[in-house]
């Protein structure tokens, strides 16, 4: 079952349950996927759908950070609910230990020895953790292990 059909089924369920927050987030995800399909001119594959979900999650995490810094608890609570709903459609997230192991393998593969070679390591790691880990979390672990 494709992500779009899953979203359609979940949208119907949310409508029946009169769950307005969930319905709004599902509609937003569905619109993002459909807009991307129109933009690229073909039905998206799983990897492309995952990219869109990751982008939506990143936008929400960035918004959450901004709202918390501004002291807007009302908006940050709303975004936390949206994050929880988007997470349901993403693959299971990797633990710090799993990310650390992937980063160690990438460092060995690239032969990186200093923070100057950060980009090489990130280039190897990010495709492996796509949608399964937050980029900021991976970034921090790579910097830590390269020092």
Automatic annotation (TrEMBL):
Superkingdom is Bacteria
Annotated membrane-spanning segments are: none
**Protein name per the record:** Glutamyl-tRNA(Gln) amidotransferase subunit E
Recall the taxonomic lineage recorded for the source organism. Answer: Bacteria, Bacillati, Bacillota, Bacilli, Lactobacillales
């Amino acid at each position: 079952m494709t992500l779009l059909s899953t979203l359609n089924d979940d949208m119907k369920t949310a409508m029946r349950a009169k769950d307005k927050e969930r319905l709004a987030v599902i509609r937003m995800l569905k619109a993002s996927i459909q807009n991307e399909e129109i933009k690229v001119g073909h039905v998206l594959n799983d990897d492309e759908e995952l990219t869109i979900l990751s982008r939506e999650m990143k936008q929400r995490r960035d918004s959450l950070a901004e709202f918390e810094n501004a002291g807007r608890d009302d908006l940050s609570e709303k975004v936390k609910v949206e994050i929880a709903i988007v997470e349901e459609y993403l693959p299971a997230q990797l633990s710090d230990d799993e990310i650390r192991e992937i980063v160690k393998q990438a460092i060995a593969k690239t032969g990186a020895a200093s923070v100057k070679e950060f980009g090489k390591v990130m280039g190897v790691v990010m495709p492996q953790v796509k949608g399964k880990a937050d980029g900021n979390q991976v970034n921090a672990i790579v910097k830590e292990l390269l020092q």
